[in-house]
């Protein structure tokens, strides 16, 4: 029987499962994710699960290793990532104001050069290779990767390909091209998707290299696959070229895993991890996809992925006082102090000293520590950032000791934004330890974390509760309220296309009233508001047992928490198949002329059916080739054609365009003993 090893590297935990396609999960294990060196957490999870291989089965006989990861999603939500240079060919400067492109890029350089194409695929201006050469030589030493997007490159990728080749000639930096990631129009969104892809390359490289090295160490000679955002799998080499495809890899894997673990067909799935809560839906046993493009952390990409709503709320979300919203959680992930004290016992003594002091000190109960190594190939740190980085060389440092001025605070924040440093403070996981809803970490540190939080200066209408236990109950209540609101936001958006920004005062009041505990409602209320889910709520992820029974109760629905819910992502990593979808469009730039826009080049025809047949053959061959490259065996093919024809009054029909797609599907090829 083939034994498969499924892995998931999340923001807090790394999971491993041994999976038999016929019998299901044979064993599971967890280890803490170690962002400063991912191989430590991966090794811990793998070494915990391998001893549970069936009798007579050696690691060398494992037939497949597959992994999902929330690292790409978390990096976008938390605005972490390597510095890049975006080169835009044929764009005008106003493009930065669309699709939130300027905000997404932050301080990363953007270079505008002449070039690009027209909707017909014809060149709108010659490509300025000299300007491109100067920009590449200037920025290559300072960035980790390049992103290239040409105007109407999906109608003709020639300029993107020329820029890609030039970057490869002049530097050793990886490069992402927009036309390779999507075939859809919308130049600013395509540029955004391309930029995110480039920014994620170094992080995914670290993860894949860690897994490959561990496989070699353990004698596992099997294909290594990665879960895509639509729940299908791809070979690790392909993942390195297109890491943006792993946006929502974790949620997609969790949906596939949830189906296998629960047997449910149509359910609302909420996956709560350490950093995010991901809400999606299974319909008739299949993940519902968002073909318009995944939205993560407010960025609307062009990656076809599961229709998931991602919220910055998890077990490790930062409890904080917001000047506008009062006491709230997230969206930033921090290290729970109960976990930090378990890993670094000296932290507990510092927290005790802070709790015993009545002196008004800012940043009590907060620490900083390194999260991962410096970016490979990226520019060096500024002098101030280097000073902060060096201060953290020996482990966590109390912020009250470190931050002695605004300059240090700014330098620390920059390191946090780059994902190099992480903050530790009070989280729902700490509150759950105090209330005995969760065990395993340092409960004493969790209690001190709550006591130190109570010493914060009241603001924004928030007044500290009477004691640490009450504060912790308030934290759990915030998890319930914010999770319930997120679930309602997701289902209302899906059904009515109305997001929470358009609820208005009445909508927000009704949602809040429905989610609030009924025993706290004023006796003189004149009406009640009850919002109910029409489908069961399937909750997965390590923290859900602490919060979701109450969440489901307030949403008036049946709760399903399947066995092995805490490792659903790792199960989904090995339970899925490989799928590659290739699309192309045919336009009519002139009467009687039909132009096929292909990544291999444009081709003109005088008959629509001849053009469609050519595109169908090209898409079939390309999808098959990609599926084989992704590691598929026994490939099945599916085809779609959508002709857009405008009918004028009087019956005259005008051809607009034809979209043709070929989908290749197959199970991963397994290693043979």
Automatic annotation (TrEMBL):
Residues 5-169 form the Hydantoinase/oxoprolinase N-terminal domain. Residues 190-332 form the Hydantoinase A/oxoprolinase domain. It comes from the Bacteria. It holds the Pfam family Hydantoinase_A. InterPro entries: ATPase_NBD, Hydant_A_N, Hydantoinase_A, Oxoprolinase-like. SUPFAM superfamilies: Actin-like ATPase domain (SSF53067). This is Hydantoinase/oxoprolinase family protein. It comes from Dongia sedimenti. The lineage of its organism: Bacteria, Pseudomonadati, Pseudomonadota, Alphaproteobacteria, Rhodospirillales.
């Amino acid at each position: 029987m083939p034994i498969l090893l499924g892995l998931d590297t999340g923001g807090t935990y790394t999971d491993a499962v041994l999976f038999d396609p016929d019998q299901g999960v044979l064993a599971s294990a967890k280890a803490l994710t170690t962002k400063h060196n991912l191989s430590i957490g991966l090794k811990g999870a793998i070494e915990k699960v391998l001893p549970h291989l069936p009798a007579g089965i050696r690691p060398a006989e494992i037939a497949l290793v597959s992994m999902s990861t929330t690292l790409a999603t978390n990096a976008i939500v938390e605005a972490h990532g390597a510095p890049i240079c975006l080169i835009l060919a044929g764009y005008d400067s106003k493009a930065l104001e669309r699709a939130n492109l300027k905000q997404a890029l932050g301080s990363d350089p953007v270079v505008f050069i002449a070039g690009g194409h027209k909707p017909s695929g014809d060149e709108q201006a010659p490509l300025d290779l000299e300007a491109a050469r100067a920009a590449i030589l200037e920025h290559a030493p300072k960035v980790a990767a390049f992103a290239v997007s040409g105007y109407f490159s999906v109608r003709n990728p020639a300029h993107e390909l020329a820029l890609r080749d030039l970057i490869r000639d002049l530097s050793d930096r990886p490069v992402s091209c927009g036309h390779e990631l999507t075939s859809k129009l919308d130049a600013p969104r395509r540029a955004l998707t391309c930029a995110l892809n480039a920014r994620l390359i170094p992080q995914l490289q670290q993860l894949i290299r860690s897994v490959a090295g561990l496989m070699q160490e353990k004698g596992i000679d099997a294909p290594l696959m990665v879960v895509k955002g639509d729940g299908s799998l791809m070979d690790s080499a392909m993942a390195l070229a297109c890491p943006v495809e792993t946006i929502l890899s974790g949620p997609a894997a969790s949906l596939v895993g949830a189906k296998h673990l629960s047997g449910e067909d149509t359910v609302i799935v909420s996956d709560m991890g350490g950093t995010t809560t991901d809400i999606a839906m299974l319909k008739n046993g299949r993940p519902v996809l968002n073909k318009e493009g995944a939205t993560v952390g407010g960025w609307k990409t062009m990656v076809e992925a599961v229709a998931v709503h991602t919220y910055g709320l998890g077990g490790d979300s930062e409890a904080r006082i917001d000047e506008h919203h009062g006491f709230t959680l997230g969206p930033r992930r921090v290290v729970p102090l109960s976990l930090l004290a378990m890993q670094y016992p000296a932290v507990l003594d510092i927290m005790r000293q802070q709790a015993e002091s009545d002196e008004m000190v800012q940043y009590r109960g907060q620490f900083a520590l390194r999260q991962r190594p410096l970016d490979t190939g990226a520019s060096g740190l500024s002098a101030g950032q280097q000073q902060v980085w060096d201060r953290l060389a020996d482990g966590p440092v109390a912020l009250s000791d470190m931050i002695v001025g605004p300059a240090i605070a700014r330098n620390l924040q920059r390191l946090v934004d780059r994902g190099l440093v992480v903050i530790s403070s009070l989280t729902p996981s700490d509150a759950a330890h105090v209330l005995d809803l969760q065990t395993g970490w340092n409960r004493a540190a969790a209690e001190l974390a709550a006591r130190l939080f109570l010493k914060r200066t009241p603001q924004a209408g928030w007044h500290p509760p009477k004691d640490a236990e009450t504060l912790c109950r308030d934290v759990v209540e915030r998890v319930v309220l914010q999770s319930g609101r997120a679930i309602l936001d997701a289902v209302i958006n899906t059904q009515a296309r109305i997001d929470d920004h358009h609820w208005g005062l009445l909508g927000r009041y009704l949602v809040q009233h429905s989610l609030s505990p009924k025993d706290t409602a004023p006796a003189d209320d004149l009406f009640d508001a009850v919002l109910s889910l029409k489908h069961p709520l399937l909750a997965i992820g390590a923290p859900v047992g602490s919060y979701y029974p109450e969440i489901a109760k307030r949403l008036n629905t049946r709760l399903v928490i399947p066995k092995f819910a805490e490792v659903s992502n790792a199960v989904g990593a090995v339970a899925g198949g490989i799928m590659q979808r290739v699309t192309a469009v045919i336009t009519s730039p002139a009467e009687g002329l039909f132009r096929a826009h292909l990544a291999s080049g444009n081709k003109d025809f005088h008959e629509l059916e001849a053009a469609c047949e050519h595109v169908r053959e090209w898409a079939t061959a390309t999808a098959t080739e990609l599926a084989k490259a992704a590691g598929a065996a026994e490939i099945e093919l599916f085809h779609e054609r959508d002709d857009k024809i405008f009918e004028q009054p009087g019956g005259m029909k005008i051809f607009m365009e034809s979209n043709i797609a070929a989908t290749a599907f197959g199970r991963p090829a397994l290693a043979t003993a």
